[in-house]
Specification:
binds nicotinamide-adenine-dinucleotide; alpha/beta; binds thymidine-5'-diphosphate; 3-stranded mixed β-sheet; Rossmann fold; 44% helix
């Protein structure tokens, strides 16, 4: 069996669902259920014996040690993290606690477990750490895309905390021989994406008749990958990645934020036109920029393509259409995650921004 952390969040839940759709190997899913963790994402697994959910913190050394000892997983995949840049600006403490201290404690618990394994299990064991392209910092327009050897230059509390976790994972390999793999992926989108992030926020605000808040000039560039392609990359790295190596994962889909918002608006115009017949893009509002906003991310995914034969299955056009359709078909899911805590966040992040 495998142990997944953060498997009730956006990418982790997609990963667990895809894993169990393709394999009968049991998944132990350890998740703290912060505001971003949602068991509704895993509702289709109710009664599935191969999914064992445990609510808990990756930084709870005793709990992690007990889970490892009891279930004896052959691999561990670490998705658990605080993941939203804007939240890290308003309150970095949780990011340091989970992404840095939590990862450290988790590594120590996994190391103790791995050290105690018999030779064959020890040789086959893997810890895969899921990270982000944001650790590399910001690119100028003419710069080459991030390769695995690009210097780490994190600019936000979020990316700094993820960079710190990557460094710990690397050091635990070099110093203790822990069999690790790291993936650094670009921006994901798709089902179960929490509507604090750009694409789901634009979809749900558009449908609710609310403003579509574009930060600054909207010309910041991100490289977008459909979440299920990220999950297939992780499975491939787990299966065939070289120990101690890092793999950049991306969709070759660099787009300015404003283009993304226009695409979402156009799809909604087609799939669920406004009652007044006007285009959704009339709801676009330019608001004060995010402090320290990275201008451009771009992933050079040639290493994982060349060495492991991975390629994304979706283009941006097919993936974004599926995503918009998913949100239209899951408006109950959206209304359930828009709890009191969600409303407090929206007020905190957007009320201070002048239009
Ligand atoms: P998310 O915020 O949607 O989910 C994070 C999950 O981790 C939640 O279920 C939460 O409850 C859980 N969690 C948080 N703190 C925890 C703790 N201390 N112990 C156990 N569980 C905890 O995030 P996501 O977008 O699914 O991202 C998953 C991972 O992928 C993160 O490590 C993130 O840095 C990385 N990543 C995300 C993207 C992206 O575009 N979303 C891109 C590249 C990499
Ligand atoms: P986000 O989804 O928060 O991901 P990240 O900051 O990790 O890349 O934001 C994606 C881009 O969209 C980023 O450049 C910030 C921008 N953005 C907006 O313009 N408006 C918004 O309301 C949000 C949430 C993001």
């Amino acid at each position: 069996m495998i142990l997944v952390t953060g498997g009730a969040g956006f990418i982790g839940a997609n990963f667990v669902l895809d894993w169990l759709a393709q394999s009968d190997e049991t998944v132990i899913n350890l998740d703290k259920l912060t505001y971003a963790g949602n068991l509704e994402n895993l509702a289709t697994l109710t009664g599935v014996a191969q999914h064992i959910f445990v609510q808990g913190d990756i930084g709870d050394s005793a709990l992690v040690a007990a889970l490892l000892a009891k279930h004896q997983p052959r691999a561990v995949i670490n998705f658990a993290a605080e993941s939203h840049v804007d939240r890290s600006i308003h309150g970095p403490e949780d990011f340091i606690q989970t992404n840095v201290v939590g990862t450290f404690r988790f590594l120590e618990a996994v190391r103790a477990y791995w050290n105690g394994l018999a030779a064959e299990a020890k040789a086959g064991f893997r810890l895969l750490h899921v990270s982000t392209d944001e650790v590399y910092g910001s690119l100028a327009k003419e710069d080459a895309a991030f390769s695995e050897t690009h210097q780490y230059e994190p600019n936000s509390p979020y990316s700094a905390s993820k960079a710190a976790s990557d460094h710990l994972v690397r050091a635990w390999h070099h110093t203790y021989g822990l069999p690790v793999l790291t993936t650094n992926c670009s921006n994901n989108y798709g089902p179960f994406h929490f509507p604090e992030k750009l694409i789901p926020l634009m979809i749900v605000n558009a449908l609710a008749g609310k403003p579509l808040p574009v930060y600054g000039d909207g010309q910041q560039i991100r490289d977008w990958l459909y979440v299920k392609d990220h999950c297939s990359a992780i499975r491939r790295v787990l299966e065939a990645g070289v120990l101690g190596e890092t793999y950049n994962v991306g969709g070759w889909n660099e787009k300015p934020n404003l283009d993304i918002v226009h695409t979402v608006c156009r799809l909604l115009d087609e799939l669920q036109p406004r009652a007044d017949g006007k285009p959704y893009q009339e709801q676009i509002t330019y608001v004060t920029d995010r402090p320290g906003h990275d201008r451009r991310y771009a992933i050079d995914a040639s290493k994982i393509e060349r060495e492991l034969g991975w390629k994304p299955a979706e283009t941006f056009e097919t993936g974004i259409r599926k995503t918009v359709q998913w949100y239209l078909q899951h408006q109950d899911w959206v209304s359930h995650v828009q709890s009191g805590a969600y409303r407090d966040w929206v007020e905190k992040n957007y009320d201070g921004r002048a239009a």
